[in-house]
Amino acid sequence: MLVYVIRHGQTDWNAIRRLQGQKDIPLNDFGRTQAVANGHALAAILGPTALDFDYVASPLGRTRETMELLRGAMGLDPAAYRTDARLVEVSFGDWEGHTLPELKREHPEKVRARKAAKWDFIPPGEDAESYEILSWRIGAWLTSVDRQTVCVCHGGVIRSIFRLVTGMEKDEAADIPIPQDRILRVETERRTAEWVEATLEA
What predicted TM-score, i.e. pTM, was given to this entire model? Predict the structure, then answer.
């Protein structure tokens, strides 16, 4: 199955590398510009077939706004998409709202443990998840995809997609850069996931 995956545009917390997780932080102006650029690029890629795709987003505000800006830039009804709760970002538990330098000062031993096994590390907090736990619900979502799809989601979700689809090793998936100005083309049957540049003119 063919899936185009887009990370939401930048937020102020992204810009200062503050752990966001499931906190509902809005896009900043630069993030909105990224979303529109991705919409123009996707329109050029899909052409008239854009209407044949399913459009789904994480229910958080930053992903929904990205989807609406993207669809608007494609000339589509901004509101004509659905959400799926399984696509919400990984929960960083009690660490949400903090930067890693802050956490390193307050909890150096836990930050060291995370660095040693980032994919499997679960932060403190009742609802916290590891990337491995996140990948369980993303795997269930991928299994449910039954038509060509455009998906707007989060960095952690895309890490899970890389590992689930391509078999990427844990350490690489945990640290691979996940840009906000590019589109990921995923082909589940071929087990490929490749970035597409979003630099096409409007």
Answer: 0.95
